Amino acid sequence: MEGRLHPIRFHQVENSAQRIEKCCIKRRTKKIKDRAGIIDVVANDPKTGEVVLVMNEPGAWSGSDERLLGLQERFNAYVSFLLDGEMAEAHPDLVGKLARIEVRCAHMPDARALELLGMIHDQLAFQEIKMEVVVRNDECRRPKE
Hints:
- The structure is a single chain.
- With 145 residues, this protein is an alpha/beta fold.
- It has 3 helices and 6 strands, in the order E-E-E-E-H-H-E-H-E.
- Strand 3 (41-45) and strand 4 (50-57) form a beta hairpin.
- The model is unreliable at 1-32 (pLDDT under 50).
């Protein structure tokens, strides 16, 4: 399947956190500008048995190089946390579980962000890490006719 892109799974939910049993929550303020090293939530999803790292993206997507670089740096921190032993040290009970990074957005990502997220998704698949994007508002829902 060389060259085949794997679609990013998008979810529209009102409260996806209801099905995640939280084992550790690190609440951070939206006022923090440099969020590259912050893991917003580390949780266990009892439905799937996966470790879930939640990355909150509350801001609008500007398509700027700066915004995309910040997103890439955050993913690097999340993957490092999973693969370099930090998670095993902080949460030994989660060692050996499959992992998922869930990007929770307040707004639908723009075209440049979607392209980057697609490339990140494909790279994470090589490490057997799932990625999902959750859009938490009605912005991408179509009205019923």
